[in-house]
Amino acid sequence: AALSGDLSSLTAALRYFLVALAGSLAFLLGISFIYAQTGTLDMYAVAQSAPEGPLMAAAFGLICVGLMSKTALFPFHFWLPPAHGNAPAPVSAVLSALVIKGSFFVILKFWFVVFHGLSGPAQTGWILGVLALVAALWGSYQALIQSRLKLIIAYSSVGQLGYMFLIFPLLAGVLDPAWKLQAWAGCGYQVLSHGLAKAALFLAAGNLIQASGTDNIHQLRNIAVCLPMTSFTMGLAGVSLMGLPPSGGFMAKWMLLQAILASGQWWLAMVPVLGGLLTAGYMFRLLSHTFVSEAQAACYGRVFFGMEKTALILALTSILIGFRAQEVVFFLQERTAVLGLGGLGP
């Protein structure tokens, strides 16, 4: 974000640095508490020997808060939109598709492996459910009212993160093994489909900004005339984010919704239902400026075909994984078992 050198970019970069630093310190402090209590840092040894007590409860809280700040879950999301809004498009694509997913995976590892035998995860899963609900609604609403293209996509990331965090209240509830498998599959599908669609959106946004010299959607009217492939890419990625069939996003949200209904936690259904409606609202608003506005945006810059092609491939993949649900779920089962989570394992 600091590459452009202007004040807003430097401020966003400094905010990101400070949040990442604070999150890392909280995480390391929690790790030190675990070591002081158990004398080991082997995750599976800790899982077998960690006792209940205030020190382990403090470790659990510090690690979760530290990692949630890095993942940008509400209310720790405040650093993400400015960072996305000022970073180059490829950096935003990597940050949204991979970096925050890495922190999310580490939370899963600690929650379902290290602290699995303690009472903390079972008692606090509903808190993450509330945060997931607020993130999905607040992030999507903020995306709906933005006028800057990259901020729309950035707040969309805040909202879509809420879907992934549904795994915590779902597995804290009473689910039989089949529905737990469904919840894990939906979570994994959401991570994959969101990463592909959001990377495509950020790269497409970078192409539009390079061609027009602005990211104000009111000045991007009918830019599809200049960049039809990029505009089509945004539409495809939007289909997956909205959860429309037959996209990967649809499969993810459908699996999560089925697990929600099976768990009896009806209030969590507001995440895919209301979140999906708000997502449709901001994506149709964005695409209406891109395709159907009367005035036409001026195109000053040149966008290389390779840049457009990369974004299109990512968007197409986010759609095509919806056609191969069985193979994708099997792949997620294998990867999750190898990584030691066990939720999708055989």
Secondary structure blueprint with pairings:
Elements: H1 7-38, H2 43-49, H3 54-71, H4 80-86, H5 89-114, H6 119-145, H7 149-164, H8 167-172, H9 177-212, H10 228-242, H11 248-263, H12 270-291, H13 305-320, H14 325-339
Helix pairs in contact: 1-3, 1-4, 3-5, 4-7, 5-9, 6-7, 6-12, 7-9, 7-12, 9-10, 9-11, 9-13, 10-12, 10-13
**Roughly how much helix do the residues carry, as a percent range?**
over 70%
Radius of gyration: 20 Å
Q: Determine the number of helices (DSSP H or I, runs of at least 4 residues).
A: 14
Structural category is: mainly alpha
Q: Tell me which oligomeric state these chains represent.
A: single chain
Largest sheet: none
Overall number of strands: 0
Content of β-strand? under 5%
Number of domains: 1
Uncertain spans, ≥5 residues at pLDDT below 50? none
Order of helices and strands: HHHHHHHHHHHHHH
Distance between the termini: 42 Å
Mean pLDDT over all positions: 85
